[in-house]
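Field: COMPLEX_INPUT
Field: COMPONENT_COUNT = two
Field: RESIDUE_TOTAL = 826
Field: MODE = joint
Values follow.
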Amino acid sequence: MNAKNPATNPDAPMAAARRPLEGIRVLDLTWALAGPYCTLHLALLGAEVIKIESITSLDAMRRGDYALDGDLERSPTFNSVGLHKLGLRLNLKQSAAVALVKALAGISDVLVQNFRPGVLERLGLGYEELRRSNPTIVFASSSAFGSSGPLRRYPGYASVFSASGGLGHITGYEDGPPVEIRDSIDLRVGATLAYAILTALYHRRNTGTGQTIDLSSMEAIVALSGHTTLAHVLTGETARRRGNRDDAMAPHGVYRCRGEDAWISIAVATDREFRALCGAMGRPGLARDARFADAYRRLRHAEELDEAVEGWTRNHTPHAVMRLLQKSGVAAVPAFNSKELVYDMHLQARGVWRNVDHPRMGQRRVQGLSWRTVGAATQVSMPAPTLGQHNDFILREVLGVPAGEVHRLDAGGVFE
Amino acid sequence: MVSNASKGNAAALAGLTVLEYAGFVAGPSCGKLLADMGAEVTKVEPPTGDQARHLGPFPAGAVGPETSALFLYLNTNKKSVTIDGSCPTGAELLRSLASTADVLIEDKPPGVMEASGLGYEALRKANPGLVYLSITPFGQTGPYSRFKAYDLNVFFSGGEGYTLPGSMSHALFPERGPVRAGGYLAQYDSGLVAGIAIVAALLDRGVSRRGSHLDVSQQEASMAMARETLQRYAGYGEVVDRSRAYFYGGIFPCQDGYVILFPREDRHWQALCEAMGRPGLASESRFADFASRKANRLELNEILRTWTRDLPMERIYHEAAGRGCPAAPYHTAADLATSEQLEARRFFTELDHPVAGRLKYPTAAYGMSATKPVYRSAAPLLGEHNEELFCGRLGLSPRELADLGRSGVL
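Field: COMPLEX_OUTPUT
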């Protein structure tokens, strides 16, 4: 839709994005969502990411609700976070498999894992062991609470972190219970680890120094609302749930629209925006009402304002409200659901949704990286690997294991 | 964590210079990620100061631009200069600063920087290696690119908002609509994405010897965190909404708050039954496996509810999680500030601030053995480094500095 800048027209030929991690090999021992989302960044930035899997301990994203018809090779979610990775099938219960991982670690730049603290160490694959043959390796671990502290052995899942990390308590209706947040938590943890790994790689490029990174998922969540912890230290205040209300703005909320479960978010900061909102609603008199004459008063009368706004929005669709209000410079954005976002025209114009061909599922719609480089498009073309899809390539080409040896290991169940 | 890197080890981004021409949360949280990793980050604030200075919360009796908790948290380790970039003289000063920076972060509506001669194309002429990061609600291009969006709107633009609050709240208040996450989460999400983008671009620059223009859409950053929910539709045709529920278990009120209990596997359920002092429950046929527990969720949840109701959340947590059942207490900010786990991880550090005093600050979620997240200083005072940068670095005289201040440029 925006023809002005041909470099950002998804149909125009665009320079291929540079791949800053080209030549970097990542040994990917992650599983589930957080770890694989971290390594997805590395893969999409051009690294060779070797993902270790086994049928004997199948990734949760290949199972249950995630697998179409229970088929472990047909999981759209697994595909979505497995793009551009190579698949190596190894049964880590076998010492010969562990030896192969150790050999790979010796020629990798990065190792990423999210097992519970101590698991890799017990296999002889901990940082102290691996750095002996590869002193510059960047060894990144993600766990529930980090590798130290009284909670380090406690089980961790995404909803656990949203609660223990403080985010759940400050989310929800003001007069209601807290909220559990799940998969997005894992993605935040994975993104945080990706940031740390990239800075370690930057440092390594400049100094030749490797290191180990120890991420706590709980702390990642605390950091993403860290101002509330500092606020308590500074003021003694403890942040509470506020629904959709704000400390400074009113109207500020989510209002029902015409349609099935249709909602729009509206936020008004200034007198000018408030006047524009009232005009758009066909109620210019509201702008002259003494109760709403400035931001301070609007805050005090937030409930009345919410009623007035919803009295209007419920007669219009979210898109109509957005168009009308945005035209007058008022912040209004629908509470988009997933289906709307897949078909949204702005996102189409931005080229956010990409298509990859999956050998078992056909064409799949996925998201690529979470930002754009102006004038360059990130390549998103490879699906997640099937189990062991690249065993041949990795064993023969990368590790140089002779064919006879591969046969022997196979017969011994090392590649299960 | 604040870790003990050995002597002589620099922070990961030491030597990098960053100009942060952004306010509120998104841009500054990106700048914080870089500053806490050792980059020299200079905030370019309007003469009235970053909006976050005025939002608080504030300590009682000390309301002011130097005691806002939001600002103090987000702006550790940074310098501050003031410039009104909307006037030509201010834009000129900003251009001078940008000519030697490695990174510029800006959050102005698309087109505004270009109009002031501060666009990427203009700045890279003097500084071809500049990594220029733009962060806006909907990105630099596309039909919504000029739309206005505050944090509430950004959060709902990404798809996660539609799925909150979840079944417990929804069952209590079925007529209510979706609710946002607390605490400016969408802003932090886009700051995190921006941080990743910048370091990736710096790695690229090391090879290509050229900078780049990074376009961060806050909507897309929010969508990144909603990736699994969005794939639920794209891949499975299912729209997840705010009635989403656990199969059984979930959130339970207790004596002093709430806990979450999630005994998904058989071994989790066994652990929980032991914690409740009812080990026999684990083998009862109505709860013996996942399918039965799912089928009998109402009874199961009633048992959990009865157990948790009069117990303190930390006790429930340690009894359950200590035996291996996924569980968590709903920590408040007060709980976090005194958390034994966080103390053991050295998650906090103390910093002195001339007005706010000596405070305990959360640091980073990662320990790094060779480089360390750095905590040199608390947030800067407004314009604290005007003299250092304009006189010391750009060579202005004190008289010129005073003139610029008087005419509102600084």
